[in-house]
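Risk mitigation, structural track. In case the binding assays with iron/sulfur cluster fail to produce interpretable data, a predicted complex structure has been prepared as a fallback.
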Amino acid sequence: MQSLRELFRIGPGPSSSHTIAPTLAAESFKRRIADKGGDRIEVTLYGSLALTGQGHGTESAIRGVFAGNNIIFKRDLSSNIPHANYLCFSLYSGDKLLDQAHYTSVGGGELRSEEDPTVNAKEVYPFHTFEEIKTFMKEHGEKDLVAFGLRFEDVREHLSRCLDTMFATVERGLNKEGAICVCANERLRTERVAKKMFEKAQSLEDSDAKTEMLISAYAYAVAEENATGGEIVTAPTGGSAGVLPAALYFLYKNKGINKEILVGSLYVAGVFGNIIKQNATIAGSVGGCQAEIGAASAMAAAALAYVDGLSLYQQEYAAECALEHFLGLTCDPVDGYVVVPCIERNGIGALRAYNAFLYAKHIAPLRKNLVSFDNVVSAMKMTGDSLPTAYKETAIGGLADVLKDTNRGTC
Ligand code: SF4
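Fallback model:
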């Protein structure tokens, strides 16, 4: 498995695969061609990047990298591509091709390229499954993932920075009001509600309702920031960036948990996220929203279980339970923007993480879970592989189809 630095990345919303990774690809290609001259750069977007790239800010992110250059965008919707998120940069001088590199945006901001191997992430953990990790820990008499801490010291500082960024994003989102107006045709105008949700939560007397509304408000705060291009941490993606911070911020602000413990919980969340990434996918364009919100919810549930002092078995139960009940969730962003259903879905994802944590705490000790975390990741991959393309970040199926002709108001 790769370093947690590859999983948790700090960058701009709204989409890690459509914004952060294409930005990194553009920066890498820019370095390659620094002394090659040329009069224009052609950027070809394929698959999901071609279909939802505009709504996800792909073109503007790439233009930002090549500011001052002559850039021409092309879209290619042919199905004969190696991955749903694929792009190519070509440097020309007149008709002469000076350089070219293809990149795959595999999800969560990660890139792969045969022609530009500098972008390829290295494998640093010798494990592939949770079963392997558990077996290794058992052999070494270790019960705590963080104390076991394989390479934890390598990433502690990075995780600490990610935690601070997550909290800053929550707080920024909680302090903003006004319209989220991201679509060119102004059809998707909606109001930011995180601040109002937070105020509402404060006024609630029912402590259960208060807890759920606070967690939801924190998730909305980040998701609204993400939708408008604000800085987020991929957890594991931009679209699902609100779920894990909501859980951690709740623990920090409302339960008084210190940051050192929360950095440990981020590590635990990362281990589960990495297993999903390694054995299935964290990209909505490959596996549907189960791969984004489902994965984020599993990570948050494991983090909540870890902070509560639950056993490794219960942390696994929490992550498994959260992911299991998102199996089959489709990715259908209306008009290709990470607004509907994504913002609300972050709130629900955070609440399901909290529910899964409660199940892990109170039900897991009663009987053995028949489904392991590795089992549910396999089921998620199988389900994602058989989902029709219309439900994988193409904005042509589901809600994106049902809402495509409605007029929801103007900005
Ligand atoms: S529907 Fe889910 S997977 Fe698709 S863009 Fe929104 S958050 Fe990401």
